[in-house]
Amino acid sequence: MNGTLNKVMLIGHTGDDVKMHFFEGGGSIGNFPLATNETYTNKTTGERINNVEWHNIVMRNKMAEICEKYLKKGDKIYVEGRIKTRKWQDDQGKDRYTTEIHCTDFNFLTPKEENQAANNTGAQSQPETQP
């Protein structure tokens, strides 16, 4: 095989709502953190270990606008894309690097009923009382 491949497939929960940035030319970028986890049992101690990995997801234009409208913190989503490392400078002029997943495809995995129920529960200011 002569070519190379840069492809990432993730299923996880969003760590925040989509943050949008709009540009003068009409383009937009949306980003949000995505958490994936790995659970295993330590063979020597028998302890259950849960490791969480955070990924920076970047979406562009219409894809970002759709996610901003329908995706909320805690929702489960499938993201497909490619890894990209971006170089930038901090306030002191030091070079910094950020690794991001640039999304090419996605699929909402949180059922619509669960999403609406979570939004309705979060919007209530008083706890429900039992009759």
Describe the structure.
It is a single chain. The protein has 131 residues and is α+β, with helices and mostly antiparallel strands. The chain has a single domain, classed as Beta Barrel (OB fold (Dihydrolipoamide Acetyltransferase, E2P)). It contains 2 helices and 6 strands; from the N terminus they run ββββαββα. A 5-stranded mixed barrel has the order 1-3-4-6-5. Strand 5 and strand 6 (95-108) form a beta hairpin. The chain is globular, with a radius of gyration of 19 Å. The model is unreliable at 121-131 (pLDDT under 50).
Structure described in brief:
With 131 residues, this protein is of the alpha+beta class.
Structural domain tally = 1
Can you tell me the CATH topology? OB fold (Dihydrolipoamide Acetyltransferase, E2P)
What is the CATH class designation?
Mainly Beta
- pLDDT < 50 runs, ≥5 residues: 121-131
Radius of gyration: 19 Å
The coarse overall form would be globular
Q: CATH superfamily assignment?
A: Nucleic acid-binding proteins
Record the strand order, biggest sheet.
Answer: 1-3-4-6-5
**H/E series:** EEEEHEEH
Supply the CATH architecture. Answer: Beta Barrel
Strand content: over 45%
Count of beta strands: 6
State the share of residues found in helices, binned by percent.
Answer: 10-25%
**Helix-strand category:** alpha+beta
SSE order and pairing:
Elements: E1 8-14, E2 19-22, E3 28-41, E4 48-60, H1 61-70, E5 76-89, E6 95-108, H2 112-123
Parallel strand pairs: 4-6
Antiparallel strand pairs: 1-3, 1-5, 2-3, 3-4, 5-6
